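Mods, move this if it's the wrong board.
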Amino acid sequence: MSENLTKRTQNGSSSAKKNGEDRVKISENFLTKYFQNYMTDLGGGPKLFKLRYLINFQKGATFLFVLFLMKYYKNYSFGAFLYLALHGSYGIFWLIKDFVFGDKSFDRPSTITASLGCIVLLVGYWYIPFMQISGQGIENPSSYRALTAILMYVFGVNVMLLSDCQKYFTLKYKKGLISEGMFYANRNPNYFGEIMLYASFAVLVGKWTPWIILGLVWLVVFNLNMYLKDETSLKKKEGWEEYSKRSSKVLFKVFRNDFLHFGMYGALVALGYYIYNKI
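Not the wrong board. Structure tokens:
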């Protein structure tokens, strides 16, 4: 009787495990099937606009947009000029990057719905300088806050540019898995750089609203893009198994042990939060 009970328990556990795996698989298939090209195909219909034009306009016009806000609100504080220098220069760097080694995925035409979604996202990014210049942010940030924002921005923009440069020229001359250089321990260092540089803008503003906006973008858009990249591209390439063990989705993997890996970054986030509240 005890043996029958044990068998039933084991069978029940196996069935539950199998059902759980099936649910995960269905979820994964749903995402890869319906969202693989969501940035260009969302909503269906005619494809009229290239995302490159929308993105380049928003990023390139940011410098002028911030200048306009400064004049409109008559805000010529240290915080306003520092924000202009950081976010404005990022837009210029982006245009140079796009001209020299642009992302070819932005060359594809997109549907009207996808284009509107892109516009909403880009307008959300512009709400951050609006907060800073309209007087909702910190007009005269402390030296420590300014230093923190500048260091985060410089580090982030360099990681982003170096990663995109390596990716562009590597794929130009050799197709396959990119698992060296900036990509050795991080499968998406360009996203990591973007996160760091946009986080520097939020640090400068000093309010929670920019963090909420950016957090939604990172968790939904960035996370979905990175997941789809793994599932539909990287996993099909030679060397994926070994590469996936030594690399992380977006954080540079210093330790192969996941506990140490996430523990280190958790400690850094806690330290950053403590410093953020002090400056």
